[in-house]
């Protein structure tokens, strides 16, 4: 019986989002044979897992994919969903990667010469593997969701599209991170009665002392700070992102202001019994802590301005415009009495790297690495939050990380080339850097 050997590539890249495409850009520059495997289509999450009114929360000038900086007319604006997709589609055309779509990677296993990659399209082998599938795989929905009344529509944030797609009635949004806060705002602006379960997400100003806060933080070097120099070290990877928005040219998201306008705020979700949702008595503390972070970031900008002797508008301190009243119970919500017809779960995702069969994960299922390089030779990760800096999982920093990994991959390729090939252009392309 004839055995067909597995298809071999020097490098297999799993995932064709901005991380995988960025890496392909640099691997092609070095003439390194590689193949991208994508279970859906390139940039699938941007096309299919964002709501209609979605826009960037960071200014357009931070879009710096390799060889593809933002070149539009609004560098300090915030691209909307359609514009983001067009920007990424143009990047895909530029990179023109070696790509197979509709291929699910089911198992990656180390071998004596590299890796075996089992997929829905058959078996491949590779000397090196780069996981570029992100860290947001399985939507988190609590088990109590199973006990909600059947008539209540339930969506995860990745499924939400617009207020018009929901039934008439009030909506409960659970979670106040970036997605939860922006979806709650989207519903609120559409005239929906919104109940929001507020978590421990911090917030920041959109503009302060005459500039976007992102511009100030960039000048202060925050976005170049490596994770091992951050005060929280690797713990920063577990932090919830600050809520703010680029909608309508950019503005703060102030949950207290929403409450003044009729949004109902609650604490952390706790339980469900007999049609009554219960919440922890954490609302005031959560709002206060978010404001402390907000004012703390602004105070750091104040210090920078003073130290540099810069001319800027005067400083300010946010003062709460609303406080939870002791006479109002923010810990209970009778779903029927409140007319709740939909619940949107905005409490994030958990990773699923079960298909990567290598001893490189911690107790929470997260890969252990340094700048994406693991202890398993030839196995790398790219595109994860704070892989190296704040921008690692974003358009602003993934190019730097991809270049670094391409250099590591190139060096490993050279170490394993036969002696007669080292320093030659074969089997590498003529444009490749000699080993």
TrEMBL record:
One Pfam annotation, family name?
A: Pyr_redox_3
| Entry annotated with the keyword ATP-binding | no
Q: Which domain of life is it from?
A: Bacteria
Give GO MF terms, alphabetically. flavin adenine dinucleotide binding; monooxygenase activity
Keyword annotations of the record:
Oxidoreductase
Where do the coiled-coil regions begin and end? none
**What name does UniProt use for this protein?**
MSMEG_0569 family flavin-dependent oxidoreductase
Q: Which organism is it from?
A: Aquabacterium lacunae
């Amino acid at each position: 019986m004839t055995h067909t050997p597995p298809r071999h590539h020097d490098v297999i890249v799993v995932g064709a989002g901005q991380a995988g495409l960025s890496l392909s850009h640099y691997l092609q520059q070095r003439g390194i044979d590689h193949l991208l495997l994508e279970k859906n289509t390139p940039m699938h999450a941007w096309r299919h897992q964002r709501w209609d009114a979605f826009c960037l929360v960071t200014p357009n000038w931070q879009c710096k994919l390799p060889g593809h900086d933002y070149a539009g007319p609004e560098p300090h604006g915030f691209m909307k969903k359609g514009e983001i997709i067009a920007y990424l589609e143009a990047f895909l055309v530029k990179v023109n990667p070696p790509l197979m779509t509709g291929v699910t990677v089911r198992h990656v296993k180390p071998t004596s010469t590299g890796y075996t990659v089992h997929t829905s399209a058959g078996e491949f082998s590779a000397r090196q593997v780069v996981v570029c599938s992100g860290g947001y795989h399985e939507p988190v929905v609590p088990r109590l969701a199973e006990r909600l009344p059947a008539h209540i529509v339930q969506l995860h944030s990745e499924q939400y599209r617009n207020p018009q797609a929901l039934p008439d009635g009030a909506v409960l949004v659970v979670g106040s991170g970036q997605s939860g806060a922006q979806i709650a705002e989207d519903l609120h602006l559409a005239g929906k009665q919104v109940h929001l379960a507020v978590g421990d997400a911090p917030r920041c100003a959109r503009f302060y002392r005459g500039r976007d806060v992102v511009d100030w933080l960039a000048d202060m070097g925050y976005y170049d700070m490596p994770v091992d120099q951050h005060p929280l070290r690797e713990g920063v990877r577990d932090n919830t992102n600050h809520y703010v928005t680029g909608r309508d040219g950019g503005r703060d998201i102030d949950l207290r202001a929403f409450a003044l306008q009729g949004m109902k705020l609650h604490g952390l979700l706790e339980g469900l019994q007999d049609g009554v949702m219960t919440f922890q008595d954490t609302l005031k503390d959560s709002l206060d802590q978010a404001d402390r972070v907000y004012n703390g970031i602004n105070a750091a900008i104040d210090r920078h301005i003073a130290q540099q002797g810069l001319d800027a508008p005067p400083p300010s301190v946010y003062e709460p415009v609303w406080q939870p009243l002791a006479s109002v119970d923010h810990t209970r919500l009778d779903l029927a009495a409140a007319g709740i017809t939909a619940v949107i779960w905005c409490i994030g995702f958990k990773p699923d790297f079960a298909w990567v069969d290598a001893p490189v994960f911690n107790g929470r299922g997260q890969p252990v690495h340094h700048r994406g390089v693991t202890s398993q030779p030839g196995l790398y990760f790219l595109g994860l939050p704070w892989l190296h800096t704040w921008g690692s999982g974003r358009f602003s920093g993934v190019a730097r990380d991809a270049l670094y990994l391409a250099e590591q991959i190139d060096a490993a390729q050279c170490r394993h080339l036969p002696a007669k090939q080292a320093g030659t252009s074969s089997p590498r392309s003529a444009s490749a850097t000699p080993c």
